[in-house]
Structure formats: C-alpha cells, structure tokens
Amino acid sequence: MAEGQGKTLRDVAIGESATVRRLTGEGAVKRHIMDMGITKGTEVFVRKVAPLGDPIEVTVRGYELSLRKSEAGNILVA
User: Boundaries of each Ferrous iron transporter FeoA-like domain copy (predicted)?
Assistant: First the structure.
C-alpha cells in the first residue's frame, strides 16, 4: 500500500470494481492518469493483471486501458 494512505488500485483484486477517491503523485505521472479519464469518483474495473503485476488492465468509462503498477499505486480507491 502507498505509505499508509489506504487502499490503492494495485490492491484491488481481478474482477472487482473500485471508486477513485484521490490521485497522488505529481506532474507528468498525475497528468497521464488524468488524461486516461481516471479522476475522483470514477469507477474502475480491474480486468487482468500480468503474472509479475505489470501491467494492470482496467476498464474505465467503457475503455480498456493498461496501467503500470507504479501508476496504479498513485490511485487511492474506496
């Protein structure tokens, strides 16, 4: 988990959905996540995780996306 801040998208099991509570990180990393349509209140469904955990494939607003494990760690979920 990210520095005791709570559950991140990395912690969500395959086949489960989560709602984004907050984005952490700065600059280009945060901008990249937001450019994919992942913002506060967005529902994210985890479709698949590669055997070594990178990448994580998710569905957001009807689009299938791939996130790096480090990016998923910057997305706090409920």
Answer: 7-78
